[in-house]
Every structure is written in C-alpha cells, then in structure tokens.
Design a protein that fits this description.
single chain; 472 residues; 8-stranded antiparallel barrel; 7 helices
Length: 472
Amino acid sequence: MLPSRSVRALVVALFAVLLGALLPATAAQAASRTVQGGRLDWGIKSSFQSYVTGPIAQGSWSLTAGAATVGGSQFRFHSATGSYDPESGAFQAGFSGGVRFVGHRQSDGTNQLDLTIGRPTVRISGGSGTLYADMISKDRESGRVTTSAQVPMATLGLSGINMRGGSTPVALNNVPATLTAQGATAFAGYYTAGTPLDPVSLSVDTKAPAGAPAASSTPSPSPSKTQKTKKAESTAGRFEDAAVDWGVRRTYREYVTGSIAQGEWTLADGAQDGGALFRFPKGKGTYDAKKQTLDAAFAGSVRFTGKGGLDLELAGVTVKVASGKGTLRADVTNEGTTREGVPLVTFTAKDLTPKDGLAALTEAPATLTADGAKAFGSLYSEGTAMDPVSLAVAVEAKAQLPALPDLGTAAEPSATPEETPAATPSTQPVAAESGTGGGTYLAAGGGAVLLAAAGGGLWLALRRRTAARTTT
C-alpha cells in the first residue's frame, strides 16, 4: 500500500528543512568577504633595530601614520583593508602605518642610513604568501634616495597552513618571513636575498558581502547622531566637534606596561585608545581662521598605574594655538594631589587653514615643558621630544573627524582540525577551525546521516501503519 498523502508531505517537508539548513551555510561560507579592521605585528628584523640604535650606527627609529609598538621589538600596523575568499583561501590585507630608521649621522647633518618601511600588505594565494611594503631607501655609497611602492619584500612560510574555510577574525601567528631579492635592493643592501626576517603575525576582521549573514566584525567609524547634531549647532568662530590625539610618549607607555612598573593605563570619560595614541574627544571652543588661533577643551582622561608608587592621571585636556605655536595642558593628578591646567608640551602649529571643513594638524612634533617634566616626576627633562600631537576641528557641519586606527578584534590562532600539533599550530588561521574543506564535508555528511535516520524512522512508521491496516 502506498503511504498516505499527509505522510508523503511530511517527508518532503523534512527534506526541505534539512537541505535548507545545510545549503545556505555552504553558500555563505563560499562567499568572498571584505577585510575591515585589524593589525599586523612585525619587528622587520630585530637585529637591524639593535644595529641602528647601537654604538656603530648611533641612530634611532620613529613611527608614522599611527603605527605603534607591541612587546619588546615589534611594530604594530593597523586598519587592515582587503578581501578574503574562504572557498579558495585567497587572502589580501593592507595595513596603515610606517617606521623610519636613521643612523650613521654625517658631518653635514644628514644620515647615511635612512630607510622607511610602510603600508605592509600580505597576499596569500595557492599556498604561497608574500609581504609587500612601500619603501624609501638611501644608497649607502651614492646617497641616492629611491622611493618604491609595494615592493615584494618578503616571502612567507605557509607550510602546513590551510587558509580555506575561515570566517572572522582570521589570524596568523609567527609566520616565517624571508627577504626577497627585490626586498634586499630596497633594503639598501644591508642584507642579501634569502636572509630570515622577523616572523609576521596578524589578525583581521572580515565582513560578509551584501545579502549574506554578517559575522562579528569591527564597524567602520562613523560620526554619531550627537556629533552630527553638534556640528549642525556650530556657529562662526565657535566649534562643538573636535579631537586631539596624543600618545604621551612611546617609551613611557612601554615603561608603564614593562617589567619594571608592571602596570597599565585606564581610560575614562570618553577617551579612546588608538594603539599608539590616546584620543581626547568632544572638543569645544573657539577658532579664528584668519588669525590662526584656537582655544579648545576636550573630554576624557588617562590614568597610568604601576609598581613603585606609579599613579599619574591626565584629565581636562586643553589646547591653545597662537602665532604658529600650540600648547597642550592637562589637569595632572599624582599621588592624590591635583594641579590644574599644567602646560605639558608645546608643538608647532604653522598652518590651521581649514580644508573640506576641517582644520587639522597631523603628527606635529611636541616638546616637553619644564612643568611637564615635573608632572612626570623628572623622569624626562625639559625639552625632551614627546609623542607628536594631532588635532582636528570640524568647522563645517559636513566635516568628519579622522577615524582612529582600527585594530580589529584580537584573536588567538589555532590549528585546523585535520592537522597535528606538530605542524606549526601557532601559524594557523583562527577561523579555519570552523570550516576547512574537511569540516564542510563533515557537516554535509552529518546532515546526510541525520536525513537517513529521519527517513528510516518515517519508513518504519509507515510499515507499522500499513501492517496495522492489513491486520484490521
């Protein structure tokens, strides 16, 4: 006897539900994703850092475009953008920020060693990977300066790494890097092709394409409704939306979190952490474009604490600009005592002419004042170079403040399911665990088993119903 129409309909419905649960996940996984936000940590070559700052070169290095430091000898590049295809494993992510090395100062005041590396980009396809970077290098002999965009600087060792099947975030940790021939040339000949460089680590967020389910990722910065309202309320000579970015001093941050102080910093009242800087937002004040003067007060505070009695808070930040010079002040609380309006640093502010509704200074060199030296417990002397100051003031309603460096979501890498721990597990893409090729097939197989079991159960029920009808 044929099964009844209701039972057949139930079987068809069950089939549709189970297939519907499987197919959309497969299709979404295969869709290419946008890389949006993340960081790349790389020391370039730690022995080169030591050489530059050592007794031979007697030089230094400096950070640009929001780059930061992390750990003992790594540079952190930020705000990843690019693409990732979970189906093929193809990956491309470009990062912002740069580092400049100088050394071997000559009698004319120039440096024989002058090398800048910026905007690193990682590209992975077909099991091979390359790190590209913008490079400005000075030939040691001729002194000729060469500027090259996106030089294939290093090959990446991806042995045992399966890039397929990830979602977000995607992370790689301690990937071996080897200098290429083109990289050696751009490196001004300090190293030959094939020289091992420091390993590369990265973590990036990915965003699903339009129409696909969105995974958790860091949203792109955009002005809030409150900000837009404040901009609309701006009047001539007065502004209600500004921000000042200042990292205090890189070595001070490293001292606070290092082995001596073993401390930390905490932000309050709206201050934001940009990795290599702190942003003090919600600036209000007056601005005169003709006179190039500015008087602004900002929200937010940062407090540094650690061993040895370290307890320093900076709040109530204000900035004044006049005659091409700026002064950043703050209320300084140290060991329970507060001094208001302490002038901490001065900086160059030669041009505050608005462009596209935004009056801005980018990374203006800053120098510690005598009062600032006292605020830091004489850890630094007057005239010490502090972190640069960046300032942005929206003088028109349409203007938007620059976005903070986007470091993405931190992630700890892990091995893919089909690999053994011996296969350099610390270099595996984080999200590969949830969807490699094998994982996809396992999911489909599990669905097939479930489907067969359900069908078998219904078939048994049909047999019992048929038998019951026959005996009746």
